[in-house]
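Homework help board

Subject: predicted structure for assignment chain

Our instructor gave us this sequence and asked us to write out the predicted structure in token form, then describe one feature. I got the tokens but I'm not sure how to describe them. Can anyone check?
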Amino acid sequence: MDWVSERTRELLYGTWRKQRGWSPINVVSADGVYFFDSSGRKFLDFSSQLVSTNLGHKNTAIIDAIIEQARKLPYISPAFTSEVKVRAAESLLKVMPKSIRKFFFSTSGAEANEAAMKISRMVKRSSYKILARYRSYHGSTYGAISATGDYRRWLAEPNVAQGIVRYPEPYCFRCPLKLKYPQCGLACVNYVDYIVKQESNVAAIMVEPITGTNGVVVPPEEYLPELRKIALENDLLFIADEVMTGWGRTGHWFAVSKWGVEPDLLTTAKGASNTYLPLGVTGTCKDVSDFFEDHLFAHGHTYEAHPLALSTLPAVISEFERMKILDHVRDLESHLGKRLREMKERHRSVGDVRGIGFFWAVELVKDDKNTPFADYEQRAAGEVSEVDRLASKLMEMGVYVYNGPSWLVIAPPLISTVENLDEGLNALDSALKYTDDKYSK
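My token output:
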């Protein structure tokens, strides 16, 4: 380790891991789709860091917007307003689903989700329960981790918020109801109506349109419209968590648009500022905003609507338009998907490939029964899986890929060229020999 890595190890925590053996790479610069460490090694950023640097590293237009705002007004209390607040909100209206008309700004996806949960409970008043899926991640703060369904919630229990009710996810490769799509008749979503009626006091349904870190689970075409219909029929608020799926990742500004769904609340972060500054967004429909005309909006904090963070929003949207990013993603989606599906045919350890746009998962299995290499139990125990080792081998080859217990998340920056995609895919194709060798019939 160089001295920066060594002092980091001594003074700071590595998140979601045991601290012993942690040896963080000291990154000294980044540009476009690459980042560089202190020894001069170059890495292709094949997961956009945490599926967040959608426009790549060191975008000058976004950086210039931050600098200009820093010179003008680096901070003012949220009790006041400023031009940057209005410009940010106006720019969002151009790209959000038509149902979303008013915004609350925070500093992360977790805080955006916290705000959405609190708003739902304030609006619905006597109803307080929020439906959230098992395989989900909504953030690590108190309320957001309570809504989270994966192992990260386990580690926070029993001290989590009450009033969260679980419903199953449309994980067709490993159906939680042990059914086969399409013969299942979308049992997983139809079950939600039953849950609502048996629970009572339900305020909202919360959903990642496409499951993010828990394996990029893309729902069947009818799933999200049916879930929205259930919310409408039961007078529930519909919260779309687009922290990871927003900002062009699917070839649409937001994933709900792929299915023609308009939510009551939409949360996002990450790509909103290209993660150059901490920024979370909670958007609300007119019915919600009208409620607060005569009721107290009981939420807020010091860094709310921070001018520097908000300066990035118009710049991000302008860069998307200038570079025609949505068209670019849709144009290259077939190339990325085709090559990944070819790997499934070629590598016995690849159990499933799924995704849309520039958002894909490669799920690894260790035998012909599709047994995962690891699952949440091993993750919660801090154990290293074979897929972790596969990701390490890719790093040795100069390609960074985010991974779960038994899957890789392929989410390159949206500015990636065919050549960039092929660079990462060729490395992956070669590295998969490692998990193939661990496969047994």
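Reply (TA_rk): Your tokens look well-formed. For the description, you could write something like this. The longest strand covers residues 100-106. That's the kind of observation they're looking for.
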